[in-house]
Design brief:
- By secondary structure, the protein is an alpha+beta fold.
- Helices cover about 25% and strands about 20% of the residues.
- β1 and β2 form a beta hairpin.
- It binds adenosine monophosphate (AMP) and zinc ion.
Length: about 120
């Protein structure tokens, strides 16, 4: 946990996001600036700043984050039509919040390459 981290504050319940899923280790909530009809962020409750900080013992946690992404896609009815999952890392990746999060964006046609 990090005292001044926005997503840790959400994980602790000090700030209440628009939550779509929660369990003991994971929280998922709607992005405040959605990049599609549906844009959810899936976070671990543990403070992990970036992908570069992942360690072996986080492997199951990351797997669980993707299982939550799949569940959200089913709940939001775009599992079959498709969706995008993204984890941005550091400056060139466009990371702005330094608590690892999986973007789940759906409900529109995505393009490639990303900007
Ligand atoms: P990233 O650029 O990958 O670090 O993504 C950070 C994401 O957090 C952006 O999509 C922001 O819109 C989102 N965000 C920032 N503050 C909040 C907030 N208070 N509630 C929900 N999403 C937020
Ligand atoms: Zn944090």
């Amino acid at each position: 946990m990090s005292d001044d981290c926005l997503f840790c504050k959400m994980a602790r319940g000090e700030i209440k996001p628009d939550t779509v899923y929660e369990d003991e280790k994971i929280l998922a909530f709607r992005d405040i600036n959605p990049q599609g009809p549906v844009h959810v962020l899936v976070i671990p409750k543990e403070h992990i700043p970036t992908l570069n900080d992942l360690e072996e013992h986080h492997a199951e946690l990351l797997g669980r984050m993707f299982l939550v992404a799949k569940k959200i896609a089913e709940q939001e009815n775009f599992a079959e039509t498709g969706y995008r999952t993204v984890i941005n890392c550091n400056r060139h990746g466009g990371q702005e919040v330094f608590h690892i999060h999986l973007h789940v964006i759906g409900g529109r046609q995505m393009t490639w390459p990303p900007g």
